[in-house]
Design a protein that fits this description.
Elements (H helix, E strand, L loop, with lengths): L4 H14 L5 H13 L3 H6 L7 H15 L4 H5 L1 E4 L2 E4 L12 H10 L7 E5 L5 H9 L4 E6 L2 H13 L6 E5 L12 E6 L21 H4 L7 H9 L4 E10 L5 H7 L5 E8 L5 E8 L1
Helix pairs in contact: 1-2, 1-4, 2-4, 6-7
The protein binds S-adenosylmethionine (SAM).
């Protein structure tokens, strides 16, 4: 006799719970939804329905991977960010909701019809650059990352969301491959900002993400420090630098901002009221 969706879900949730997964029923439901290609409302309404043997086998494989601590998004291969769905692989950081604050800040600062030229430093999946290009139809961007593998994912996401003709993807360390004549109206970045020795204390799911997307030197500020130093050379006067940083880094970062070069417009808090994002304007 074949298993029902409900039985498979209950067994999966039990396995996930026993393996320390925070939200076992939610994850089981999302994996089931991915396997049978139906939304979660369908699943809730059809718990008695039989699941095909092949699908059950696939579901059980996915549950076993999740139970071992593989992030859900690496199993399903995608994550929503702002208004779009992004392909994610273990070569890129999984886009986080707090990073959407950067897109929101850009929308508040820049008029929709602006012929914006911007750069995204450390683009990963491309979620920031592609979301901004999707909002600003006249905009052009350069997205930079040290990881060639990440850039492959960003390229596929750009094609999928029809912005590839307005996005140049460049493999480089910050601005190393950018001409001194390339000037932008806006630079956004969600750089790595975890201290080297903090990595072992992060949840096991986060430790599956690329190390180069997470860690940045002994104090976690090695990339942000260089970003604040190098960006003025590529930003037009009046242009903005908007970047994310880690918990409790706001005071130290404030000390890195040269007030002769920058006006600090805002330090924005995330939904948990934690300072997470800085908006600087070049004088
Ligand atoms: C925290 S992830 C952010 C990815 C994506 N922007 C997001 O918000 O989901 C940081 C990214 O910066 C890249 N990166 C790290 N150091 C870099 C550097 N010096 N220059 C350019 N990119 C860098 C990493 O490869 C990674 O893709």
């Amino acid at each position: 006799m074949s298993a029902s969706i409900g039985t498979a879900l209950t067994d999966a949730a039990r396995t996930l719970q026993a393996n320390g997964i925070d939200e076992p029923r939610l994850d089981a439901g999302l994996l089931m939804s991915h396997v049978i290609g139906r939304d979660r409302a369908f699943i809730v309404a059809h718990t008695e329905a039989a699941i095909a043997e092949q699908q059950l086998k696939q579901f059980e494989e996915f549950v076993a991977r999740r139970a071992e601590g593989e992030p859900l998004q690496y199993i399903t291969g995608h994550q929503e960010f702002f208004k779009l769905d992004f392909e994610v692989t273990p070569d890129v950081l999984i886009p986080r909701p707090e990073t959407e604050l950067i897109v929101e800040a850009v929308l508040e600062l820049v008029h929709a019809d602006t012929r914006l030229a911007f750069a995204d430093i450390g683009t990963g999946s491309g979620c920031l650059a592609i979301s901004i290009l999707n909002e600003f139809q006249q905009a052009h961007a350069i997205a930079i990352d040290t990881s060639e593998r990440a850039l492959h994912v960003a390229r596929r996401n750009a094609a999928r969301h029809c912005v590839a003709d307005r996005l140049r993807l460049v493999q480089a360390d910050l601005f190393a491959a950018i001409s001194v004549n390339d000037m932008f109206d806006l630079i956004v970045s969600n750089p790595p900002y975890v201290a080297d020795d903090e990595i072992d204390r992060l949840p096991r799911e986060v430790r599956r993400e690329p190390r180069s997307a997470l860690v940045a030197g002994p104090d976690g500020l090695s990339v942000i420090r260089r970003l604040i130093r190098d960006v003025p050379g590529h930003l037009r006067p009046g242009g903005h630098l908007i970047f994310e940083f880690g918990i409790n880094q706001d005071h130290e970062i404030h000390g890195l901002v040269n007030s002769e070069v920058w006006t600090t417009l805002e330090i924005r808090k995330d939904l948990q009221a934690i300072p997470r994002m800085m908006v600087l304007q070049k004088k």
